[in-house]
Amino acid sequence: MGSIATYIADKAAKKQQTPAEWLESNLKNLDRYWVSSHIGKYTHPDLAVHLHDNSNPTGEGYLTTADAAVQQDIFVDGGSAFMTIASFLVSRFSQKETIAEQKDDLEAKTAWQYFREDSPFIRREIESLGIGYESLREKILRIQISKAPEESDARLKQVYFPIPDRDGEYHLLSILPPSILMLELTNRIRKAFQVQRKCQDKKSECYGGSYQTFPDLTNVRFGGANVQNVSTRNSSLGIQVLPSLPPCLAGRKIKMPKRNFFFDSLYWRSFSNMLLHLDSLFRDQRHNLEMRERREDIILDFVESVLYEANRLQALPAGWSKETELSDEQAVWLDEAYGSQRQADTDWIWPVCLDFARWLVNAYGRFCRIEKRKEISLSDAELHSFAATMEEVLKQEVREG
Fold it and tell me: Which of 164-173, 179-188, 212-221, 225-234 is predicted with the least confidence, judged by mean pLDDT?
């Protein structure tokens, strides 16, 4: 069973339905769907304003979303209760054979793309479930195309400026954000991070290759308490935003550690989204290779954030740690006064990694208590696994100098 068939079968099983029953029960909501490029919900979650930019010809005159090689988004009327098939259509699926290959597949496409291309891949996946492909594709392709609304909405907060001597005509000074470009930028950033991981992985054929990196990214989620009512991708992934320059924003103030870098300089609440993701993985009952790799990835996300803060301390004038009560190992790691010792003697690495693991377990416990979630008990095995993940990264940093 391939990735698309597995997705549908898993969703159906959770509802105690067959794949055909699951599809049929959700396809009735297709009349609530519109193919869109601009969705007002990203400005205000209660808006129903949406439109599809199919400007022609592309590449001439003003830049439009039609000029960008992106897939259209899907607007759903009614909120998260009706998003099931939309969530399936915008999810990316790989044609690769193994889980490892699927994870690193930069060419994975959405189910929506496969249906539009009439791909043999999605035909095989659908028919493997005993479902008629042609009739399903015909229904999917009948999803409505958004039209420009006849009037705006005050909650868009659009600014119109009257044109002198032309009664009743205005210039629109603020536009409706093109959601498909926000999503495409996010997808390209995440692909770049996939390439970065492969270039840094000694087991990868791409090890040592060049890659792009994007510092100071901001992860944005639109909406208030019900972010899932804005977009399924907004709820699960958020939107990544590049820094806006100019102006050049002042960097965050460094919180200097006094006794322990992890507990003094890292505020666990700033990791809430990652802790939520980690908690969800702990609660998943599957214990296969895919789940182990997903847990490893989220721990690497923690490590990357921690290393960013550590690098800021390493950039300070040498000797700052002498006024603190840091352990010898943390001082060697964080204070440039010990830069040569850091490279020559790596005995400091494992104690630092254990400190990281203890901080992560503590942060997870705090998160569960604040969010009133039953904490999953973690053993020394998990503690050493977290530490080992960071150890590999720190050793690689030392090797690369």
Answer: 225-234
Residue 302 makes CB contacts below 8 A (sequence gap 6+) with 271, 274, 360
The alpha carbon dihedral of 98, 100, 101, 102 has a sign of positive
- What is the sign of the dihedral through the CA atoms of 245, 248, 249 and 254? positive
Q: How confident is the model at residue 293 (pLDDT cuts 50, 70, 90)?
A: confident
Mean pLDDT taken over the chain: 83
Burial class (CB in 10 A: 0-12, 13-18, 19+), 1: exposed
Contact (CB, 8 A) for 3 and 114: no
